[in-house]
Amino acid sequence: MHLIFSENALKQIVKRIRMGNSTLDKVKRGKSVTIVTLPAGKMKAQFIRLGISEGDTIFCSERLPGGTIVLKKNRQEIAVGYDLAKKIIVFLQR
Amino acid sequence: MKSDTIINTAEQNNSLNHTDELIPIEKEKVVLVGNPNVGKSCVFNYLSGMYVDVSNFPGTTISITKCEYKNRLVYDTPGIYGVSSFNDEEKVAKEIILSADRIINVVNALHLERDLFLTLQLIDMGKKVSVLLNFSDELKRRKIKIDSDKLSELLGVEVIETSAVNKTGLDKLEFAMDNAKVGNQQLDLHFMLQQLVEKNVSQSEALLILEGDDETAEKNNLPLGTPDDRERIYVSRRNRVNEIVAEVEYEDSKKGEIFNLLGRLSLNPLTGIPILAVMLFIVYLFIGDFVSQQIVDFTENTIGRDLFEYNVKSFVGNYSPVDINVEIFDEEENLVSSKNFSFSEGMDSQVELKNEFKTFSTQDGAVSDFNFTNPIVRLFFGEFGVITMTTTYLLFLLLPLVLSFYFVMAMLEDSGYLPRLATMLDRSLNKIGLNGRAVIPIMLGFGCVTMANITTRILGTEREKSIVTAILQFVIPCSAQLAVITVLLSRAGSLPLIIFITVISSVLIILSTTLNKMLPGESSPLLIDLPIMRFPRMDNVLKKTYFRAIGFMKEASFWFFIGALGVGLMEITGLLQIWQNSLAPLTTSWLKLPKEAANAFVMGMVRRDFGAAGLFDLQLTTMQITVAIITITLFVPCIASFVVMLKERGWKEGITVWIGTWFTAFFIGGLVAQIII
Fold this sequence. Notes:
heterodimer, A: SH3 type barrels, 28% helix, 32% strand, B: alpha/beta, 2 domains
């Protein structure tokens, strides 16, 4: 049996796939994320009103101890609670 | 032609008839609409001067301000991010917007992306709109350019650059009102709406129905749009906003980006907690030291007791039998001498003695204690006199305190600090089943618990409302009570302060953790807009302070008089004695206080600070003061908050909380007494 990828390379690929879709609570301060899915209903409506919709790339300007996330898009800043952040599927930008 | 039909139907569906009763119908209704913190009230203040009419919106406690401006009625609305029924503010704003003839949409130029969403929604409603691009003076400083002509062309309505702070552009407000027009609507959406308009619904309401606003759908008896409809409309509107912003806004350099250091620092607990501590210390210096000591000392003693009460009482004493005890104190509050004057038929019948009394009682440091023989006179002018005591407490003790508290609250609100505090404390509040937003009613509770009870409506779920309501009634002392407590504690020293804070915070933690465990369901998560922090605008702050203080005094005065009358009646009928005696075992052996302390608990049921103030006159040891303050803090809410709580939370919950406070107050107070006294 001959491996096409080295073990190390395989690990990298798995890691990348895992890293691709994540939830917002995992974002680090100073990184950007692309929003994949927002929780349906009024929450989503409120996000859209504040200027954040699915597909947008957004900067995480602060991650407080405990996991409250502060997002920044242009000049708009919003705070997202930890439990809500866990429900938002994002694509972590490298 | 089309726009005319739309406007006419909007008038037929006018749902604000109740606020219009006194006004002839011909007057056009202009409504100011905008996101929170866009300077909407500055614009309104410019139009109204001081002549505004503040009223509560029927069925809610959100106040609506309106004024007349050159034959038009101008309405201010609560700040909203979109028109719907997500919360009370939105519901109120929606009703007023639906009945509007013309809309002035105030937009924060620095937040076009956020604010234009509402603008486009208003335009999609088919309303006549003009846009005020506020804060346009800040654009230069931040090196941002907005092409307002282009914006006007894209929106299809007038766009006027203003700066409400230095009042530029506001002279064009009338032009904006005159030229408000139906803007460029999204065509496919417009045609969808027309199908509903054919069923005799206004275009505005049709849009709300399609966007899933159940209130509007119910009112018109039409099926609600699906959640997908709303999402489709919202997403396409959001895309249009983004396209418009991309076309009209240019940022010259990234260096001009908003540098909001204080805002950033107040978010992170590492720096945010010291900032909070410094802020609270400044507030303490201002309210706890300056206002409640120096100002109140002057207003309460010099004006209230020595000037007002002394003159009223001696005037009444001219005609009514009175026994006066005068004590003279030196500058260190030591008793120097005292004298008793007895007028069995009123002072006027004993002129010589009266003159002697006048000379003796007008020396420096003299305190006169009038004892009227006639019970009715005592009821109105005596120690708990409905006219004497209540006036002094209301005008010379409470008013300065309430003014200073509302001033501080308005400063905090206007600076944009509160949402940051909410964010910083979010995780800690999660532990007791709340989200960061709950910090707002709790902070307000330190101003007035009654007002804070109403503000619990901003919370997402019934569960959160129950928890915060309980916290407010059990442990949060209102400004008036806090002031009296501060005075008592500052006399008592630092150990009582430490005991007080420890006990009250333990009760807070135990209470909220228990409720979080007991109450079913889940709490809602935090999602909050962080406005740019700025220095509060004074005219705005002062106006807010003024209106709230007036509102508070109007509401509180009545209950004060009732309370004083009640206690006065109890005193002259002997009921007070019976009450004291029946509570005596509890007060004297369990709480280890003098039995007169029971008066404080009668008064405390009426107004909490009344109760605390009743402790002033008792000769208490330091530790007794500590116990008394703990008990009175945990004791029942005042009548006004009790009534509001019943209205907001229902009988069952209200009564449970009320009885709970009785139990907790006496249990905890006694427990502390047994340990420290």
